[in-house]
Amino acid sequence: MTVQLRIDNPMLLDYIGYLFPVEGDTLKVNSEHGLGKLIIAHCRQSPKPVEPVLGEYVVTLRLPLCSASQNLEYKFLYFSRADMTQLNQALRAYFDLDFTGYYRRGESAGFSKKEIIEGFIQSRRLVSRDNYDALHKRAYRKQRERDALLTKRLMRKAYYVDESLDTSGLKK
Fold first, then answer.
1. Statement: the pTM of the whole predicted model exceeds 0.70
2. SS3 annotation, 47-113
3. Which end of the chain has a smaller Cβ tally under 10 Å, C or N?
4. How far is it, in rounded angstroms, from Cα 145 to Cα 137?
5. 133 pLDDT band (50/70/90 cuts)?
6. Interval 27-44 mean pLDDT
7. Nearest Cα to 70, choosing from 100, 43, 90, 104?
8. How far apart are CA 145 and CA 152, in angstroms?
9. Given CA atoms 61, 66, 67, 71 in this order, what sign does their dihedral have?
10. What is the pLDDT at residue 70?
């Protein structure tokens, strides 16, 4: 049972190759993995052969035979455009969670941002060189978001403390 999926960008293409082992020219989907379950759940059946998916970043996925996919065996499988969009969003979410967790563990271990990003690229087999710049920008944006959130919290706390203290006796 195989189905084709168009991936949004080359970094996610490399990442899905990290999640599922390559078997020839297909990726072997694991039904125990959360993304694998989503892939199986989004598969649609066609009574006739489906047109191949066109585009630059297209992967062929081999589905496992399991309780969730047993009724898909010997059928023509495809994903709608909406399914592909949803699966790409799910893949991006898995990537973001994985990268954020890896980055925070590296940060707490005292590694530099460069070492963390290079380690993530190596460990996840993200082969494109452009991935370093993309991950560097992602880490920078996440750090800016954390700083803005911390500033906002501290401003709220300062406002609360200022409002709750009675300073009228100090002014005289």
1. yes
2. CCCCCCCCCCCEEEEECCCCCCCHHHCCCEEECCHHHHHHHHHHHHHHHHHHHHHHHHHHHHCCCCH
3. C
4. 12
5. low
6. 91
7. 43
8. 10
9. positive
10. 74
Q: What is the arrangement of strands in the sheet containing 22-23, beginning at the earlier edge strand?
A: 2-6, 58-62, 26-28, 22-23
**SS3 assignment, position 115:** helix
What's the chain's Rg over C-alpha atoms? Answer: 23
pLDDT per position as a tens digit, 49-82? 888 888 889 999 998 888 777 788 778 899 999 9
Nearest partner of 41 among 15, 67, 6, judged by Cα = 67
Both tokens of 21, joined, read: 């082992």
